[in-house]
Amino acid sequence: MIKEWATVVSWHKGEALVSCDVKTSCNSCASRAGCGTRILNKLGPQNSHTLTVPCDTPLVVGQKVELGIAEGSLIGSALLVYMSPLVGLFLVSALFQALFGTNLAAFCGAVLGGVGGFLIARGFSLKLSRRENWQPVILSVALPPDAIRVETTTSADSQ
């Protein structure tokens, strides 16, 4: 089970809308100044993913929940998304090269096969996303943000 913490955005009638922050591997090593990956991550969008997850327990906005998804579904979806366009690219490119015998035909076949593989992956992903074992589930719920109150006193207050 792959786990990730998310923040509750809203809860209504047994469905929680949760937001997961996008995490990068940057800022975890000593070579931050000269790292090309860090620069590329700054160029990309810094957003969060919002998911709808069934939950019978009433939740409060801002509450943290631990989400889990099965490893098999994550590996299966990654294979579908990455391998379908790649296999389509190679197969159609080789077919066009064999049929027409030119590099331009092979290039056109590669583009068509890659786009076709992407569309096939998109169609299958819609069907697979409806499976219950491919859905994220709430594993644990943290305390609401207002459940703990911490009071601090300074030395001036105690005198």
From TrEMBL:
Q: Which Pfam families match?
A: RseC_MucC
Sorted keywords for this record are: Membrane, Transmembrane, Transmembrane helix
* Coiled coil regions, renumbered to chain: none
Q: Where are the transmembrane segments?
A: 74-96, 102-121
UniProt KW Membrane keyword = yes
Q: Does the keyword Membrane apply?
A: yes
Q: What is this protein called?
A: SoxR-reducing system protein RseC
